[in-house]
Amino acid sequence: MNWNIRPLDRSAVPAIQQRxxxxxxxxxxxxxxxxxxxQLALIQGKERxxxxxxxxxxxxxxxxxxxxxxxxAPSAVTQQMVLNFLAGGAAANCFCRTLGVELQVIDAxxxxxxxxxxxxxxxxxxxxxxxxxxxxxAMTAEQARHxxxxxxxxxxxxxxxxxxxxILGEMGIGNTSAASAxxxxxxxxxxxxxxxxxxxxSDSQFALKQALIEKALLRVTTLDxxxxxxxxxxxxxxxxxxxxxxxxxxxxxxxxxxFIATMAALxxxxxxxxxxxxxxxGHESGEQGHRRLLAALNAEPLLKLGMRLGEGSGAVLAVPxxxxxxxxxxxxxxxxxxxxxx
Length: 342
Description:
By secondary structure, the protein is of the alpha/beta class. The protein is built from 15 helices and six strands. It has helices at residues 13-21, 32-44, 76-87, 91-99, 141-160, 175-187, 191-194, 203-217, 225-232, 235-249, 259-271, 290-296, 313-317, 319-331, 335-338, and strands at 54-61, 102-109, 121-123, 165-171, 254-256, 279-281. Strand 5 (254-256), helix 11 (259-271) and strand 6 form a beta-alpha-beta unit.
């Protein structure tokens, strides 16, 4: 599976940096906002930057490993939260309404479809939840391929409607287990470096979670990203990765959320390294392995609020920072235009 992602033309960096340095401020005084403005300028390649239609896609799926009791909630909560998203009652809904972000919910493979299908829910079900990764491959090779293709299809549909920023969120009981296992496999780390407490599990659940992932890793001896997705992944993780790859092909920036979404980003970057240029990391979550995962992607997150909710919630909160960086790049006076002499 090939992804046609164009690496950014870094020959434009000196001109972009000169434009930023001529603003009425000491060099570097706006910190990460300056780097963010420069990245957006490279991606958009325009004289004036814009951010008119940010869209959050929340992919929901279930995980076979949840039957082991590695979460505080049963798998039924995945479907219940999807209904909450559709009713507008989740944190992600609140943040999207406040900040002008559109939201779409996708059933990527919950245990069962919601019947009758609610208005607004997109169905692209890869299966009725994954198999239990502690004992067998989470999905087939064909399912892993469909994850990427259908995630890409959903992103392209939004881009065709004018989306100029994609944010990827997720909902899936047990998905921190899948993400931790994938992280350990792809980065060749011990589960103790990757496994966190997810939704806030007890000490005994935490020990069980680590033991199950250690067991799963014994059968995974490959660094091939598609095989790792197949053996250890989740339908929502794969579809998020596919959406990111399609955004990169279209030259659109992606605002990455927390631990699960960053794992999807690592998977996508392993499949197409040029994608990294298009990724902006919204926040560092409170999940134990997230900082190490960010470091593996050489990522500096915009926010650190101790959040560990998922849903794309932390990334949505970073949208105003992107708008502020664009405003600086477009509208902040230069020393010459303001008549300021230094």
